[in-house]
Amino acid sequence: MAVLPVVATTVGQVLADHVDRVRPDAIVGLGECRGADLIKVERVAVNLLDFAADNSGAACRDASIVPDGPMAYRSTLPDRAIRDALADRGIPCDLSMTAGTYLCN
Q1: Is residue 44 a contact partner of residue 97, using CB atoms and an 8 Å limit?
Q2: CB-hemisphere CA count at 13 Å for 92?
């Protein structure tokens, strides 16, 4: 497990370094969604950063996360099975198309 900084300029390298050290079979990212009362299983990561301020106070407008990459990436995890397994255990959850354009992508 790793806790990543909520800072656009460093989060990518911190994550890459952790993956290099741990060499996981899969990566499951968890983030907070203000006001949500359930777990949202994201289906798509948008290749876009657009927000007023991260934890360092920096803003980001219309920036690609992966330069020259596609506009979005579909999760390779079994999103419906994950949602169903959580629901079967009484955990409030649903599928969500995207985490938006903050740092969860």
Answers
A1: yes
A2: 3
pLDDT given at position 8:
92
Phi first, then psi, for residue 66 (nearest 5°) are -110, 105
Q: Give the domain range for residue 49.
A: 28-98
**Residues across the chain:** 105
Q: What does pLDDT average to in each consecutive run of 10 residues of the chain (105 residues)?
A: 90 94 89 87 94 95 95 93 98 93 84
68 within some domain: yes
Contact 103, 54 (CB under 8 A): yes
Spatial contact of 91 and 37, defined as CB atoms under 8 Å apart: no
Residues 99, 31: contact at Cβ < 8 Å?
Answer: yes
